[in-house]
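Two proteins were folded this term; both appear here.
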Amino acid sequence: MNWLASRCSSYDEQFVGTCRDYSLLLCSLLRATGTPSRIRCGYAPYFAEGFQDDHWVTEYRLPDGTRRLADAQVSAAVCEVPFDPMDVPRDGFLVAGQAWRAWGRDALTEDELALVDAVAAAPAYEEARRLYADPRLVVSREILSLAPFHGLRTVTLASSPPV
């Protein structure tokens, strides 16, 4: 059972769709009222203890110019969340762009950054194939799936064609 189902009464009657669907619907409704809004992709820590789940929320602007995040898939009336779903705390949702910038600052060595830059700048498919032969870019056949819907589990990937 996923996080939302475990914390909400009448889950089956309440939710049909994904977080992106709910966020897009709320964004459309807000825009119809003249409220500037957009959907934001990022990571929510409130789905599973110690885990940042990928998730979509709606960001909207108040008349005073401040912006708020709203989680349209979470209803305070039927779900246990420690915040108002129409005002998700900024430290309660990590926007994907912020995560990307934070990861890039100190997660890679200079040598690894140079390798990533070389792949991004590869002028032709053959050059990219050569670069992907580097052992640092080979994906392991077995990976750990962190999807909270099925729990932690090891997934074996199908073999890929030789590089």
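Next, the second protein.
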Amino acid sequence: MKVTLLARLYASSPLLVPSPDVAVPAGFPSPAQDYRATSIDLNDILIRDRAATYILRVTGSSMVDAGIADGDEIIVDRSLEPAEGSIVVAAIDGEFTIKRFHTDRAGRGWLLPENPAYPPIPIPQESDFLIFGVVTRCLHHV
């Protein structure tokens, strides 16, 4: 699974989207719900650190079981430290990929796919390895 840089976020003004002030039930619909129109700032919801945030487009299917599909956009924060189990964008010898970060009991690093059709990738000690950032959101196309 590869990623392509779409944009670096430098939004200095709010990114406002109209939003009715109502929750949408996933069960039975409510036919008589009152609502009032407001707006929400997507920067507040999607971005923690604007200067360190990127949007990348994903190609491939190695992360489908994590809900990340071919053509989706991911929001990546470079200011976050990857923790065990974080989904990260990493570069191995200059090739970018998105995988789940794992360290085994022996201290070896692994990049794990979320699709059984793809093998885990060991992080060789002699490789040029970099974690570009931690994935914080996926903008999934439906």
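The chain has a mean pLDDT of 83. The longest strand covers residues 129-139. These notes refer to the second protein only.
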